[in-house]
Specification:
86% helix; globular; mainly alpha
Length: 64
């Protein structure tokens, strides 16, 4: 459970840097939508992976 939480926080920090938002805001307001779009839209997924330099573990977390 702690590993999942760490992955979520790492992703939220990366998104927060790009969007000038706090990690907590991203986890609460943005991450749920990013997960849906990540799963459904290949172009979005590819761009997000590149833009945020996501690790393999972070990609796996977003796909869940």
């Amino acid at each position: 459970a702690k590993q999942k939480s760490m992955k979520k926080k790492a992703i939220a920090e990366k998104v927060g840097e790009k969007t000038h938002s706090s990690t907590k805001e991203v986890i609460k307001d943005t991450l749920p939508y990013l997960q849906v779009a990540f799963k459904k839209n290949k172009n979005f997924r590819d761009e997000l992976m590149k833009e945020l330099d996501l690790s393999k573990e972070e990609v796996e977390w977003l796909r869940k």
